[in-house]
Amino acid sequence: MQLLPNGQDVASLYFGYSPNLPLTYVGMVLFGLLFLGFCTRIFLSHSRLFLLLLPLTSLLQVVGYALRYECAINPSMGLFTAMSIFLLLCANVIALVNYKTVREIIIYSGAETRYIVIGPRFAKIFFEFNIIASVLQGVGGGIQSDPDNRAVGSHLTIAGSCIQIATLICFLIAARYVHRSDDYHFHVHGKDPKRKLFTVIYITTLLLCIRLVYRIASSAMGIKGVIATHEWTYYVFDTLMLVLCLFFHLVFFIGNYLPHVNEVIDEENYGKEGLEGQIDLKNINNNDSAQYQQSHQSAPYNVNSSNNQQTSNGNAEPSTIERLISVLPVTRVIYRIAKKA
């Protein structure tokens, strides 16, 4: 612990209080156990690739709390910024898993979508807004540690948090529509898993909203406000919310309610970002492999055109969102896993 000549802890200039070191150990242990639990779940269930984001986000939290411990002992702007980024990413990755889950339901149902937002690009649309919000929050959090720019940093953080909570609310409305609509349904092992899937999605999204309300209130009151100067508020309304989100995802593991990797017959068509690539598992399972192969051979033009389209998409220039993501190695890894899934 470093002290100023007046006896003040140097770390309090960054955090607003002197961080409790034992609580950082607790955070590392909790998220480390969640990481091991998710790895075991995914390995045993042969779940879809995008669920690897769950152990990844737990690992990000372990690294974040390790950096929090180091920053409490040897505080510096670089450590504080790195810690803020790692701890910030976790909530966004959990939200991405929820987006991808609803996208899986939409595609597996094979229903014709009535609205642009409720389609195969479902996860991508919400994730792009999440990236914008995360960049604003990350930049704002880093600037707030500088006494000369705390007001600007606070405004950026509040703006990012407001965009994110608005995105989550819109996501809940869209998810509710998919949940209640009879057009979006499929069966896994003879059972309709929609109720269990959406229970996890609703609970975890509401917990993320509570965390964002805390973030907005803390930034609005400033670094010297009642919320920001009491460490217990951070652990109750931030850390605990994320632990509960991951705990619900671990206990009510959504991989058990989605078709496994070996149950997807046409993986190439499944990955398309168009309505032509939607798969109705019920119809595919009722057809034998000969009929399936014959139907694809009868339309070679469509196959070639789709392959040409995928090749052209692969060579396309990266979008502005992709350029923002590529700034950090961690966000690049998350984006690549999400895109492959």
From TrEMBL:
Which InterPro entries does the UniProt entry name for this protein?
RTA1
Q: Which GO terms describe its cellular component?
A: membrane
This protein's record includes keyword Transmembrane: yes
Its annotated compartments are: Membrane
Could you list the residue ranges that cross the membrane? 23-44, 49-67, 79-99, 125-143, 155-175, 196-214, 234-254
Q: Where is this region: Disordered?
A: 295-317
Q: Which UniProt keywords apply?
A: Membrane, Transmembrane, Transmembrane helix
Q: How does it sit in the membrane?
A: Multi-pass membrane protein
Pfam families in the record: RTA1
Residue ranges with Low complexity bias? 302-315
Keyword match Transmembrane helix: yes
> Where does this chain mainly localize?
membrane
Its protein name is RTA1-domain-containing protein
Q: Which organism is it from?
A: Mucor ambiguus
